[in-house]
């Protein structure tokens, strides 16, 4: 019986492209695997898959009794709802160590880099498996996405070198241009339902018993939100009440200005202000230089809650 390789809920490009890439690797080393997903691909992910000729992995929400290899997280809140009834056989990730636990030993590839696909590239190198052209393409795009085309503080020399290697394999001469094309797809928000935007790249975190939701929308120009910002704020307020969350925040990230406007709905906004050292005005605050939820947003907030 094959293992299922799956990323987190509300999957991003790293999660879905990583599941595809790791599944191919596992099958090449005689460890039968099937790629899966926990939600619908984002417009950016759909663009990447179409660009390199892939269908989205199987949508599978239940994993009871299955073997599962987790990609791009190790958080209970981001895992399948019935993960406790599954056997986790491995984790590949680039985030902080979360609260998933296992009753049996497992394979772990966790590195402080900008993207899980960078770690998966290391796994290919370790096993001596050649990366197909199309898989190299989606891995490269996932790294460009997660590192914000190398602008994110999470980006490392390993990420850059992997992109350079993968671009050669994929036959992409100007990966910077392809990265910008991806972010232009991300920036097309007109006509998209507000809840779909809020949930496009959203994660829940358990912070010392407090449920905190953090979403992020990365665009090349924040003016695309001018006419819908109030609607976004109203929807994150609804999301907070629906899930009995302590706080819900939405990062509106301008990759050209290299900063984010933070929209906040909270039971105690002072916690957020303490975390980032800035006062909010009507639930909004500009955070200069903040591009990474993983490195610049979650850790200081986690520290305050702890």
TrEMBL record:
GO terms for molecular function: inorganic diphosphate phosphatase activity; metal ion binding. The keyword Isomerase does not apply. Its EC number is 3.6.1.1. Its cofactor is Mn(2+). Pfam families: DHH, DHHA2. Residues 179-305 form the DHHA2 domain. One of its GO terms (cellular component) is cytoplasm. SUPFAM superfamilies: DHH phosphoesterases. It catalyses: diphosphate + H2O = 2 phosphate + H(+). Coiled coil: none annotated. Keywords: Hydrolase, Manganese, Metal-binding. NCBIfam families: PRK05427.1 (NF003877). This is inorganic diphosphatase. It comes from Grimontia marina.
